[in-house]
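Changelog entry: the Mur ligase central domain-containing protein record was regenerated in this release. Current contents:
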Amino acid sequence: MRVNICNKQLFTDVMQRMFPGIDLPEINGVTIDSRNVKQGDIFLPLKGNNFDGHQFISQAERSGASMAFVETPIETSLLTKQVQSTKTFLYDLIREYRSQLSYPFIGITGSNGKTTTKDLLCHVLSAQMNVMQTEGNFNSTIGAPLSLFAFETNADIAVIEIGANKPGEIKIICNVVQPNMGLITNIGGAHLAHFGSKNKIAKTKSALFA
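Regenerated structure tokens:
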């Protein structure tokens, strides 16, 4: 996943508030996937149960990354900044960036119809408003928050598609993107194997209104 940074000055201001005195190179985008790195990107290597993005720092460097945030010291000529957790740092960075976007956010979730509902709502709103929205399948615990870096600062409203494959994921996303309004399309059996019951699906989706 990768996004272009729409407002580079705001991004720089947020970074400097989080890291006073940091000397930033030119930043064009943010990516968590070394295969998607473009010139001037910040690379954020995430860790999971079966993967560690830190193994691909050299690939990100060769692709033109200008900086990387890492959890452990890495031997590289790429500018790096060490943080305790790259995922936690990413959420903190996006949350701070979100606090500078003054327009309201509408969160949309549900077992089916999220993308269609988002697209229809954006189409209607765009007749009179400057609307920001998540693109494509950027509705995960990483993709939905990451989308905010591509949002304009002078928009009127944003529509965020929010997905969940297991319990608790809606809450994680909402804690970062902080929607002001919400819409649940329906409660169905999608990903039922990961939730166990429709009641648990409903409980996860209801975090949109917490």
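The radius of gyration is 18 Å.
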